[in-house]
Amino acid sequence: METEKLVDAVLHRIFVEMEASGRHVHVTKQQAMTLFGHGLTPKRELSQPGQYLSNERVTVVGPKGKFQNVAVLGPERPEGQVEISLTDARTLGIDPPIRLSGDVAGSPGAILEGSAGTVTLREGVIVAKRHIHMTPEDASAMGVKDGQVVRLQTYTHRPLVFGDVVVRVRPDFRTRVHLDIDEANACGFVSGDLGRILQ
Amino acid sequence: METEKLVDAVLHRIFVEMEASGRHVHVTKQQAMTLFGHGLTPKRELSQPGQYLSNERVTVVGPKGKFQNVAVLGPERPEGQVEISLTDARTLGIDPPIRLSGDVAGSPGAILEGSAGTVTLREGVIVAKRHIHMTPEDASAMGVKDGQVVRLQTYTHRPLVFGDVVVRVRPDFRTRVHLDIDEANACGFVSGDLGRILQ
Hints:
The structure is a homodimer. Chain A is α/β, with parallel strands linked by helices. Chain A has helices at 2-14, 29-36, 86-92, 136-142, 181-186; strands at 16-21, 24-26, 42-45, 52-61, 66-74, 81-83, 98-99, 110-113, 118-121, 125-128, 131-134, 149-155, 160-169, 176-180, 194-198. In chain A, the strands form 2 sheets. In chain A, strands 2, 3, 4, 5, 6, 7, 8, 9 and 10 form a 9-stranded mixed β-sheet that branches. The longest helix of chain A is centred in the N-terminal third of the chain and has 13 residues, at 2-14. The A-B interface holds A 85-87, 98, 130, 151, 157-164, 181-183, 185-188 and B 85-87, 98, 130, 151, 157-164, 181-183, 185-188.
C-alpha cells in the first residue's frame, strides 16, 4: 500500500490527468427559473469540487442549427454561458471566440430552450480555451504558476503537443487538463489518458 | 518578380501548406452507377493533381445518425471509402479505425444513399490518419522520405505540434498537409495556414 501511494505520488509529479468537456451550458439562477421553473438540481458531481452535472437539459439554438439535450452544469453562475467546439459552432452557424470560461464580453449569443421557457443570451457563446486546473501543491511541484502558458504532451492514440495551454491555480481545483471535443478527438483521447507539461 | 520567386522558394523549403479535409466519400464505378445512374462528374479540381470534387452527393447512414449532402471525390476508385472525423463517427454511431486512405480492411461499413439508388458498404469507414503529401523534390529538400513519421508544428490560432504525421511521397502529389476537421479545429486552422516539419 505504501508502495502504491509512492508510485501514485511520483506519477502525479510527472503526469496530469486529462478530461474532455462536451458542449455544455451555464445559467444564472434567474435563467434557471425561466428555463425550468426551478433552480438546477444535481445529478452527479464533476471532477472540479463543487461543480455538478444537473438533471436539467436545454436545446441550444443558433442561426443555422440547434443541439438538443445539452448538459447544464451547476451551480448557477453570475452569467449565462454556452461552451461548444468549433465543429459545433459550424453546425449552429455561430462564430465564437476562443476564451477562458467566464470571459464572454462581446461574444455571440444563442437561444436556450428549457422545459418551462426560453432564454435569449445576448452574448456568452465561447469555445473554451484549453487549460489546466491545478492545486497550488501540484503547480508548485511541477514548477508552474497561475496564468502561465505551457505546452502539453499528450500520451494518447494520436499523440501531439498542445501549445498555448493556460495554467489555472486555485486551492479548490482538482488537477486536470480540460480539452474540448475537437482537441480530444485530434489527439485520440480516451478516458484516463495522461498528459505531461512541457515548459 | 525574381525576388518573389526566391522568397517563395525559400518559404517552401521551411513551411508546408495545410488543408482540412471535411467528411467525404470515394466510390467505385459500379457504386457510382448504382447511386447516381452514371459515373462521377467533376465540379472542381482539388489540390492533389487529378483529384476532383464531383457534382454528386450522398447521404451517409450509420446506426445512430446520418449526414446528408456529403461530398463525393473523384475519380472513382477500386474500393468505396468513407472518411469522417471522430466527431462525425460519434454522430453516426460508428467506431472507425484511424488509417491512411485506401487501408480499409476490417473497418466498419455504412449505407450510402444517392439520387438513383443505395449502396451498402460492408467496410470502408475510416478516420484519415494525418499525413503530408509531398513531391520527391520537396521531400528531398526537407530531408524526409516516403513513409517517414514526423512531427508538424502548426502556425495557427491554437498552435500545437502534431505527432505521428505520415509523409507520403509521389511524383504526382502536390505538397500539402492533410488534417481532418477535428484536427483542423483543435489547432484553429484557417485556409492558408502553414506548418513546419520537425524531425
